[in-house]
Amino acid sequence: MSGSNIISFNEALNIVNQKVNAVVYPEHPQGLYVPVQYILSLKSKKVRPVLTILAHNLYKEDVSEAVSPALAWEIFHNFTLMHDDLMDKAEVRRGQPVVHKLWGENTAILSGDAMLILSYQYMADCPPAHLKSLLDLFSKTAMDICAGQQYDMDFEKRTDVSVDEYINMIRLKTAVLLGAALKTGAIIGGAPASDAEKLYDFGVNTGLAFQIKDDLLDVYGNPDIFGKQTGGDILCNKKTFLLINALNLASGDDEKLLLKQITEECTDAQTKIKIVTDIYNRLNVKEIAEKEMDGFYQKALTSLDAVQVENNKKTILLNFAGELMNRES
Asked: Is the pTM of this model over 0.85?
């Protein structure tokens, strides 16, 4: 493949958007399919299907065989968001009302179920030789994500979550989906098994670094750039990398104050955010998180470097990882 035939991130995104816009839904019952159309129409970066196409493009110029499986990951991802919003009692997604606020909780459950089925249909629209391996990967990833969500819910009731438990949770809930999207493209592209695994590892480690960056931005991000008020995780006592490290490291007055903030009802949001952030600063958890994030980022780069294709073909994935680490929103 010559350099001129390497697809850019935006070119892959355009392919995905065209595929999303071309989805034909049954006319009836509209109550089932309109919410699906709605959530898929919301503006997003569509990172997962784009990664599928970019990974496939490492091995083949014609990416058409990877487009339907790429869309499967986008539909599946949005299915998880629809159900997550319902479980979290969220009101807004991508700046717009969530499905259960517009159509009700029962519709959000049922339309989400329909999206899961639809995602399997699109994944099955792959070269027959790869059908079993892709469906196995898809099913394992889906089960991993369910496990990650359950761990996340379990952690809400605990104050003794370890760092290792947290890393495993975000690996399952967030990171494996990036890895699976990349591995899907590699498999369809005819990549050697070792390359497919290295791309999976690249995706997982990038995903882990991404989530820790997300935890950092929620506390230390610029609200004007971040797009929302910082401190949201603190207000809802979410077990983030920062909070878990603070709980493990705090002692004396800091420990008592931190436990008080996460166990008692909040009466002043800004005061709570300041108290917890000050504790984070005293315990240097920001620096600990940045070091952990960089560690996963370096692992991701090592995995990508080991993929046996020309370096110029990997530049887009390399830049993608770097942009995630340096993002401010």
From this structure: yes
